[in-house]
Amino acid sequence: MTTTKKTQFAQAMEQHKGIIYKIVNSYCQNKDDRQDLAQEILTTMWLAYDNYNNAYKFSTWMYRISLNVAISYYRKDSRREDKANEECIVKIADLSQEGESNEVVKQLYEFIGQLDKLNKAIMLLYLESESYESIANSLGISKTNVATRISRIKHTLKLQFETRDS
Q: What is the pTM of this model?
């Protein structure tokens, strides 16, 4: 890799580092696991950077690699916890607004943290306003499967909010 490409890679990582934080904080409960996963994601991106096709959005490429590495990371060692704790949830959610909406967003991310790995990945991409087709391409599933899962996840989340409010 040339110095120019190294610089471009570093700049791209700096610009889109929030994606890595979001994925790592969604999939890891403790600090050591988050650091290990972030390192593995960065290494994988570094190795794949020469193959990046700039006809596609860089953020989509990052999501695809990050989510695939995160899911594989947990498949390797099923002993790891797959639950986000409150500390993680606060970091992935934009809690800059005050008041009740802040609590609703926090609760939403807590519920998302309880989803299985694939559904969690789908919701993270959905909340980033990625299209169904983009989500399907990123996760290697059909567009119909994405639409079905999003509909079911929304229904589940709605029920969780209703249960919470009753």
A: 0.65
